Amino acid sequence: MKKCLILIVLLFAFATIAPAQEWSYVEDFAYLDYPHGVVVTPNGKIWVGIYGGYWMSSFPIYIFNADGSLHHTIETLTYDGNTETLSDRCRGLSLDRDGNVLYTAWDKLWRINYLTYEAMNKVTPWQGVALTEAACDRNGFIYITHVVPNGKPFYIYNRNFQLVGYVDESVESIQRSVVVRPNGKDIFVGRIYGGEEGNGIIHYHSDAGPYGSYEKVGQYQPAIWGQCLDVDFDGRIWVGSYWDVGPDDLNGWYALDPLQNYEIVDQVGENVGMPPYQGPQPPLDGTYYSPRGVAFASDRVTMYTADFEGGVIKKWQRGFSKPVAQIETGKSVIPHEFSLEQNYPNPFNPTTTIQYQLPKDATVEISIYNMEGQKIRSLVNEFASVGVHSVEWNGRDDSGKEVASGVYLYRMKAADYVMTRKLTLIR
Length: 427
Hints:
- This protein is mostly beta strands and 427 residues long.
- Helices cover 3% and strands 48% of the residues.
């Protein structure tokens, strides 16, 4: 009881704890003609597929390094002795259980080795009818249907690309993307053009996964147009939505939490509507036009989004912050206000950086506390000059001992400014 009272008193003394981490725009990562899918492979490469403009006759896959430089371009694929130019428009990218790329190109589904860029498998479920993005569970089963099925099936393939069953033998809804839980028991489809029935996410469930029968058990967030789907490392379903059809339609990238009845719990950036049709026009900074792809890097804090009409892949990070509210005076940069930024990276191991800003000279104290309110490390305790500063924490206490994994508080006090934020250490 005593510890609880101490913690409560300390939290009030520390002022308001900052809200949950938010996604911040980092940069325009790559410019392409109508990107229609993005994925990050286990080796950190960012793959992008394009739908392309009407003037194009081939649609390569572009592979980027994490620094934004172009690493490789796939223009042809060879399978079963036949070499094909990629002349079909991309409909989506995802990963199989081994990190290889599932590439949907109009009516074809390819599996491409993420290290050698060689085709491993290929299937055409129904010739001439466009496919959605595919999804794969941890046992290697692959789930895919058609964008406009008109009664065609929702297929289940094994890891050898052999048809082994159906999620639904006759699908009427229109959709672009599919995600699946690792055990294969729950499948989610992003619906579009739903009319009076609404759009949103359609939920299929089977107690036995692909070995049993699936049933529709839910439809969530009908005001969202399910243009693209992905699942983040917290198990939340991210959906890219756009289309100004109804006044209540939602436009943007949203995270739905299955632990909160698929309520919207997060979002990224700002949708600014559709541009006048003049070809791809990248919107400014943290704005976008039309979501058509979302993917997460293995660092758990980096997101890439594909803006179809904007012709751009944008990079976002959770906990990332650029210096803001600053005034330039000659060669110096003077912050306009006191600020304690979210640490980066977060979660972290072994070190993280904390940035802070001073609009005037001041004595600064920055310390780390455990969740019982006990100070475990003093990072800064000095008189500092006006400007932007940073300090690192290596996950150790004042005695040099490594602290355990968990959530900690870091507090800054300077003049009359006091701010406390949370950070997470993962060993």
